[in-house]
Task: structure prediction
Amino acid sequence: MKFCKVADIQDWQNEEFPKIESILHSTSRGRKAWEFIHVYYGLQELGLLNGQSRALGLGVGHEPLVFALSNVCGAVVATDLYESQNWSTAAMKTNEVYDKSPFPFERDRLTVQHMDMTQIDFPDNSFDFIWSCCAIEHVNSFKDLHKVYEEIHRVLKPGGVAALTTEYNPTDLHSYEPNMLFTDRYWIDRWFTGENPLVQGFELLDPIDYSIAPLPENEPLPRNTSRHVVQAYVKDIILSSIAFFIRKAGDFSRPYDDQWLEPDWRDYLAACDANRAKQFAQAEALLKPLVDDDKVTVRLRVAAMRRLADALDGQGKTSEIPGLAKTFMQYYDQASCSDHLMSITNSFKRAGLWDDAQRIYERVEQLPG
Result:
């Protein structure tokens, strides 16, 4: 099998996919179902579902892999930010997770714990494998994401495997936002496959396969059209899933630095960090040059305007919002990210700019997602 690859509806033609679909009681053939099946299939092919392995799940909520792996491993620890106020899949209490399985499982092999994946509370070399499905990208910053990989490396046994899926953006437009750090080819090259990658001490089990079959089921659709979507229009990009199977194969030797980012994106994300820390004046100082610079792409300028509106709101500078609105309305018909547009609209409504808000709503209605 190909371990490191993009979601593809054609994978269901492999005879193992329907078998695992049955094990997981899966009823859809979209990218989320693909993630669960592909991770189980890969771990099975690696001989890790042998009744003895010790496994750790990161950000797993009550997904079916929690219970299916408990039937084929010696011990499974499922972790998430349980009782969270922010993530609906993790909002339940830890003791409620055990009752969410759609099929019988070895309950005494499963432990459910509240845990932050940037601070895994286990000793070094504790697990034979780790899995996580579309969770690691939902951290505040790339520095936090690097810490997740460092923690995964630390608690894996030598030669242990991490089976990770993440949301994949196949377009040439970056979509890097707090809690929504979508993977793309640029990111992969600088974190995994380049000459001096940020994530060291691992090896990919095989080269990444980015190809998908030219089938109608692989064509992108609006995100909420159906559960059976492999690629979806989300914000102003297309979103799919990608799997990385990585083996611990050396020391995790490189500290994080943000020089891999393009300078404008570096400033933008630093401003997002400042807003989150309520350092609104610092965020404003980083964002205004992006808004005012004609050399910055319209797409990133619109994103910067959205964050600048947040920074101005945070400082009580609502009197400056109309000036920002005047600048923004020169570009709004070129903006295609519904998240940014809707957030800007909220700021404009708070400032009483109802006509501008209506024009933005009308723009959002035209977007493919």
User: Anything to note?
Assistant: The mean pLDDT is 94.
